[in-house]
Design brief:
Helix content is about 65%, strand content about 5%. With about 400 residues, it is mainly α. The protein has 2 domains: about 100 residues, no CATH class; about 280 residues, no CATH class. Strands 2-4-3 form a 3-stranded mixed sheet. The protein has a two-stranded antiparallel sheet with strand order 1-5. The chain is globular and about 65 Å long. It starts with a helix and ends in a 9-residue tail after the last helix.
């Protein structure tokens, strides 16, 4: 492990002490973790200075070729985010959108209301009949609801089938496993943490109302070909080649944008809509739930698109200072958020980590989709799983191809 990687890992673990939740998982040298834990609580200014020093070191990284340039851009983006978090921890007032752009290295714009309206219209078309859109959607959700006691086992069983589909189309390590656990009272729906040596721990928040369609989404997003698949592939390709920085996974940094983006689009890489409908039928049979599964697929895809309303709501709340009542109305009317999920949605928006992290999903998908079209779906997705890519690299590729975009390094 070179000096840059070692100092980066120490910086990340020190930053986690003053910005809790920054380190999502760590499987690097235990002695570095012991050093960080055994020190007095670091000063924010010192961490900011170290981030700047490491940016200079990264600018002059040894080597040449595409892999070295990718590593340089990766470090620059990560360290910009760490610098911003240290400044905020020191009490510096950073405007909300400026902070988000510093964290993720991408320009942030609200999703156009017309795009969200189009997604709602697709739901309305898929669910004809009397009653308002919200009433028809509530009826479908009720029809698809899974007993909370069955949710964890259903996600695990679905993930096993997504594993087969992922191994058919992608290159995954031969030996890898998942430890599945139920979780309660958390500001997230699910979490996948890497344990090292091909193992991940995935927790599913079983307190939240869960439909058959969400079970399949969680299986793909958290396990195959999403977070767990990315963890174990990068353990082979990056950690295995000596890139020590890959032993730490972080929140609210550019790497999270690509990680959440690939996890959100992964299902489409390994299962067609028709195959997904068959998967929903299997889940439904086990859970004692029946439905028009082709319709359920259409609605789920549109609801995924409406997740962008959460990022818009974050802007309304934290940038514009709108009252909670308006945010709840926006999530209900624009985002089609279910009434029994509104409290959780507000908790996410106010959570110290998730108040900015909510952008990783929308922006990750927005960046990855056109890049995959250019790269080829399967080839591009395998690169996302295995290479040290960053938003800056993807945006550079898109710009070179004439697709308008921008990146901050």
């Amino acid at each position: 492990m070179d000096e840059l990687a070692q100092r980066y890992l120490l910086l990340g673990m020190r930053l986690d002490r003053i910005s809790p939740g920054f380190v999502d998982s760590y499987v690097g040298p235990p002695e570095l973790a012991e050093i960080a834990r055994g020190e007095p609580e670091p000063l924010s200014a010192e961490l900011h200075d170290e981030a700047l020093a490491l940016r200079e070191l990264a600018e002059n990284i040894d080597g040449d070729g595409p892999a070295t340039e990718r590593r340089r851009l990766w470090f620059l983006g990560q360290l910009r985010a760490m610098s911003a978090l240290a400044r905020r921890a020191a009490g510096e007032e950073i405007a909300y959108i400026d902070l988000v752009e510093d964290l993720f290295g991408i320009p942030i714009q609200p999703t156009p209301e017309g795009d969200l309206a189009a997604a709602r219209e697709r739901i309305a078309s898929a669910l004809p009949g009397p009653g308002s859109l919200h009433e028809r959607l509530a009826q479908l959700r009720s029809q698809l609801r899974v007993d909370p006691q069955l949710v964890l086992a259903a996600v695990e069983a679905s993930a096993a089938r997504f594993r087969i589909a992922s191994r058919r189309d992608l290159q995954l390590p031969r030996a890898e496993t998942i430890d599945w656990q139920a979780a309660h009272d958390e500001p997230w729906g699910a979490w996948a943490g890497f344990l090292g040596q091909g193992r991940s721990q995935i927790k599913i928040n079983v307190d939240l109302p869960t439909e058959v369609t969400l079970i399949a989404f969680l299986a793909a997003h958290e396990a195959y070909p999403g977070h767990h698949a990315e963890h174990v592939v990068k353990e082979q390709t990056l950690i295995g080649s000596g890139l020590g920085e890959a032993t730490m996974r972080t929140m609210n940094t550019p790497e999270a944008v690509l990680s959440e983006g690939l996890a959100d689009v992964g299902r489409e890489i390994v299962m067609t809509d028709g195959e997904l409908a068959d998967e929903l039928r299997r889940i439904g049979e086990t859970a004692g739930v029946g439905a028009d599964w082709a319709t359920a697929v259409i609605v789920r895809r549109s609801l995924n698109e409406l997740q962008a309303a959460t990022a818009n709501a974050a802007m309304l709340l934290h940038r514009d200072g709108r009252p909670e009542r308006e945010i709840r109305e926006y999530l209900t009317d624009v985002g089609a958020t279910a009434p029994d999920r509104l409290d959780h949605a507000m908790r996410v928006l106010r959570d110290p980590v998730n108040r900015t992290y909510v952008f990783t999903y929308t922006e990750g998908v927005r960046l990855i989709r056109p890049w995959l079209e250019m790269q080829g779906q399967t080839v591009g997705f395998q690169r996302l799983l295995s290479e040290q890519l960053s938003p800056a690299v993807l945006q550079g590729d898109l710009q070179a191809a004439g697709v308008p975009t921008g990146a901050r390094t």
